Amino acid sequence: MKHMKQILAFALVLVMVVALVGVTPAYAVSEKKGTYTLTFYHIFAAEEAGGHESLWINKAIEEVKEKSDGRLIIDCVPGGVMGSEEELIPQVFAGTLDMSLSGPSVWGTVGNIDAIGWSELPYVVDNYSQMNALGEILPDLTNKQLEEAGIDLYCLGALSQGIRCLCTAEKFPVYTVDDCKGLRIRVPQSDVYMATVEGWGCAPTAMSSSQVITGLANGTIEGFESDPASITARGQQEGFHWYVETYHIASLNLLMINKSNLQQLPEDLQEILISVFKEKSVEQCYDRVGANEAELEKIKAAGVEVITPTEEAFAAFKAADTIFRDEKIAEWGDEEIFAEALEYVAANAK
Predict the structure, then answer these.
(1) Distance separating the N- and C-terminal Cα atoms of the chain
(2) What is the pLDDT of residues 113-128, one digit of tens each?
(3) 12 and 106 share a domain?
(4) Using CA of residue 224, residue 246, residue 45, residue 71, what is the dihedral sign?
(5) H-only helix segments in 204-349
(6) d(CA 216, CA 222)
(7) For the chain, how many structural domains are there in total?
(8) Average pLDDT of span 89-97
């Protein structure tokens, strides 16, 4: 939470500076000889480095350029080259950066609207079919929340990172929630992630992802939770033995644009940008399923064994986190949004 408070503090400083000097913030969108340029910086890996998000973002950028006859150009720099989330996200709120990609809870913290982080709660969905359906409706639901809260952002799409599962060392196979009792499990510095594994009886241990391999080796932790692509990107498949298909948190990152900047564009360019990114984001979610299956094969090739809990055991994992999830939904006033999401997912999951 300290990390998130620093992000919020930084965003508020930007707003205060603008207010004190009495000027309107300079928008990042620029026009030159009838051509408009948007800036889009994010922390996800570049396409050439295997970044699945960047692969589909680049497809969208090329299609926008083509459909606009070269009138709308998107200057995209991935991999955190232009700054960390703490630096980039407040700039989108301030309008000095047009677009970025990050998790719902990060956007929510910076904008002081935690309610848009509901999709990162445990067991909102529990398989990829449901996740893909959620990815279709999440931008619309997010825009509804942003509009009601008066936040100057517009959500163009939701990109899938995958569904997180539990990974444990060789001496600690997990077949049921009872096997989790007392296990020290690495989680990000997040109340939601800590509460999720704590619900199973684990002892959550917040640490950097770069410390996971060392932590497993020296016994500081007995496991961690992650998605397949993140595991292979960090080489963590060499450090654990059991991959337990708990499917507890679906990671759908929100692609946001500063709404005032969006509205500076001619209406036809706005329509092109919105429609293309909406379509490509949905396609990315569906393509992520096969991509993550390939990543899981790499993990298994390193000697990791997969545990698929029985239907009864899986239900127990879910039940252990349902109270926390529902309490957060109520705390944030997300009951209607959550119900609408579940209704859509039930009707459209394939």
Answers:
(1) 36
(2) 999 999 999 999 999 9
(3) yes
(4) negative
(5) 212-218, 228-233, 259-264, 267-301, 311-331, 335-348
(6) 6
(7) 2
(8) 97
